[in-house]
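Annotated sample (chain length 227).
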Amino acid sequence: MAVVYLVRHGQASFGAADYDVLSGGGRRQSAVLGRELARRGVRPDRVVTGSMRRQRDTAELALAAAGLAVTPEVDERWNEYDHLALLEHHRAENRRALAVGMMTNGRARTVQRALDGALGEWIAAGACVTCARPWPVFRDETASALGELLTSLGSGGTGVVVTSGGVVAAICTGLLGTPPESLVQLNRVVVNASLTKVVHGRSGTSLLSFNEHAHLEGDDPALVTYR
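Output written by the structure step:
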């Protein structure tokens, strides 16, 4: 049976000039994640990341902490959706709320509400959107990336993918057979540096666990972050 661990990257730099950089907490989360992989005895045959810096840096730090000498491969299909493009195409009243919220202490919550709405519209629009990766493309690319990885691992291989919350949510939505709109709810709760386990055998591909993050709680509850 092939096993793939889907990892959400460590916390990025919300509110900074460059979001795509791990925060100090994100770097700590990545190291804790690596120690958890070592504790579980995970010895991956392949490690894959998207091309985003936060994904690649999480993989590098986690592998170092785990003592694993594996060179990560880069596959852009594991990249996150473009949240800035989605927010830009969101309804005008929500863009105004977003602009106000970004100037207050509640900006993270405001951004999340606006993003939830944008994701819902993105899914509902199907192929009829102007962003580079419409929902059907995003859904199909992430599913095919997982399928190809599982096939390459054979009957007993192990893979680790460092990706993003939206990708994890999209894959879980597909595996569970839930409506596409459920991505919004799943995406909202995926913890930074969490583990989601997918297995593949004779009966097909199954979701074995979702969003495991006890390793973070046990190290420092403050490391449990969502944005």
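Annotation: Residues 107-125 form the longest helix (19 residues).
Annotation: Confidence is low (pLDDT under 50) at residues 101-105.
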